[in-house]
Design a protein that fits this description.
The protein has 159 residues and is of the alpha+beta class. The chain has helices at residues 11-20, 57-63, 107-122, 130-134; strands at residues 7-8, 24-30, 33-39, 42-43, 47-52, 68-79, 89-104, 137-151. A hairpin with a 3-residue loop joins strand 4 and strand 5.
């Protein structure tokens, strides 16, 4: 990371950023091009869980077995400067993870993956109709590398 003063090196802090994010921006390669989309997710400290329909552009990429990238952010704040245009910036915390996606097969595995997603947003497990679970593809993205970055607002900076 170029700006080591902004690096979040502690894995627990990176995990906190991921747990605190509302959206995962999933990056894949589709038809030879980068393809990034916002998606709901769950996280267990090692893997990100996402769900999809049975077909579509992102599914082709996930099923191809190519590496994927996930980006998360929280505490985003526009920092304005009424005197200098070049002093406008953002305060934020972000994490990026790289990994491999595997489809969860079997109703029990898909239900567990879906409950990772539901726990992220609701804090609890849910019973789901078998038909809904059967109609959904669920993917586990095992993160093999993660990085974190923090940029504080000027009012919160200590340097």
């Amino acid at each position: 990371m170029r700006r080591t003063d902004k690096e979040i090196a502690d894995r627990a802090e990176i995990d906190a950023v991921i747990h605190g994010a509302e959206i995962c921006h999933l990056g894949v390669v589709s038809h030879g091009e980068p393809y990034v989309l916002p998606i709901s997710f769950g996280y267990d400290g090692e893997a990100v869980y996402v769900h999809t329909a049975h077909e579509g552009r992102k599914i082709e990429s996930l099923a191809a077995g190519d590496r994927v990238c996930c980006q998360f952010d929280r505490a985003v704040e526009l920092v304005r400067n009424d005197d200098e245009a070049c002093e406008w910036t953002f305060a934020f915390e972000s994490a990026i993870g790289w990994g491999d996606a595997d489809e969860l097969v079997g109703a029990a595995a898909r239900l567990e993956g879906l409950n990772h997603i539901m726990r992220h947003y609701s804090g609890r497990d849910w019973g789901m109709p078998e038909r809904a679970v059967a109609g959904t593809r669920v993917w586990r993205i095992t993160l093999t590398k993660v990085t974190g970055k923090r940029s504080k607002s000027k009012s919160n900076r200590t340097t």
